Structures are given as C-alpha cells and as structure tokens.
Amino acid sequence: MTHSPVIPDYSAMPSHNDIKTVAYLDPMLNYAEAHLGIRFRPTEKYRYSAFCPFHADTKDSFRLYVDGNDVVRFHCFGACGGDWDIYDVIMLREKCSFRQAQRIWADYLGLKDVEFHSGRSQNIPEPDAEPEPDDSVEFLEPAEPTDQTKATLAEAAGFYNELLLSDSEKYSKVLTYLARRGLESPIIERFQIGYSPSLY
C-alpha cells in the first residue's frame, strides 16, 4: 500500500507529539509496512488491520487507528494485547531507547529540528545494557549428532510431514497459515515441514 506523505507546515519546531498525529498517518503506514514486513488493509476511515508482526498471528489482529486526540495508535487484539504509538513500535522493532526511537522517526520523516521528549516511554521498557559476566565463559563446539540421532530426527520429520499432508481438510488452518507465509505444498514436501497436533 503506497501512501504519499502529507506533512503539515509547522511555523514552530514540531514536538515529538506533533509527529505522531493523524497528519503523519500515511508515513506511519509506509514505515510500518516497510519495517515490520506487514501489509495493512483499510477497514474504515483512519482504521487499518494487518497480521501482528510481534507474534505468530493467525488472524489480522494488529490494528492501526487514530484515537480521540488525533494520535495514531497501534493495537494488537491477539497474543500481544499491546497498545502503542509509533515510538513504542520502533522501540519494539529496533530494540532501542525512547530517545533513539524519536530520532529514527524524525529521520524517516526527513525532519532535522524536532523538540524531543527527554523522558522514557510509558509502555516499553528501555533496553538493558548487556551485563558483564561474573566469570569467564567458555564456548564449546556443538557435538556432531550420531547417525542414530540423525535417523530418528529424519523419521520424526517424515512422520509429521506425512501427517500434515495426509488430511488437508483436518489441517486446513495449518496449511492456510503456511500458505500465507509463502510455504506451498512443494516446499512443505521438500523440506519435510510437518505439524504435531495437540494430544488434548
């Protein structure tokens, strides 16, 4: 979905709040589609839906909408259950700080002078610095699997692949899920993609 940005002409320097409003809806759609690998479809005015990029979504539970304050928001009605603004989404995607997310968004918009917020996001925790280990860590090369292990794994892969392909009606949801991700029957067969149903 290609949207041409309609950027308001601010006489004063825009704030971080200004650049997350409905005036920037089209750039937000473009950014989310390009950087999250999703495709939005319009559902009504200022409302769009897509598959959530933050969990294995089987329904289009990810929404982009404009709230009562004209702020563009993202909401997942699926496993995430989160409600975010553009900065939260960038923080989740890039694993960066709130300040960095503001800069990334301003740069994407081509804005040089923006009044950034110096605080923290209310929804997404700041990424932790990598702690130093207490003791030195030794890395071991993984052991080569034995012929018996390889044979057992190949047998299990073949079993679950045959199970998946044996009843397309029973496993239609699984096959539809795989097809939406570009995995059609020849690929499923070639790479022994299978499905292990719940026992309960």
Automatic annotation (TrEMBL):
UniProtKB keywords: Metal-binding, Zinc, Zinc-finger
Superkingdom: Bacteria
Gene Ontology terms describing biological process: DNA replication, synthesis of primer
GO CC entries: cytoplasm
Pfam families on file: Zn_ribbon_DnaG
Entry keyword annotation includes Metal-binding: yes
SUPFAM superfamilies in UniProt: DNA primase core, Zinc beta-ribbon
Residues covered by the Zinc finger CHC2-type domain: 48-106
Stored InterPro entries: DNA_primase_core_N_sf, DNA_primase_Znf_CHC2, DnaG_primase, Znf_CHC2
Gene3D superfamilies the record matches: DNA primase, catalytic core, N-terminal domain, Zinc finger, CHC2-type domain
One MF annotation (Gene Ontology) recorded for this entry: DNA-directed RNA polymerase activity
Keyword field contains Metal-binding: yes
Descriptive protein name: Zinc finger CHC2-type domain-containing protein
Organism field: Desulfosarcina ovata subsp. ovata
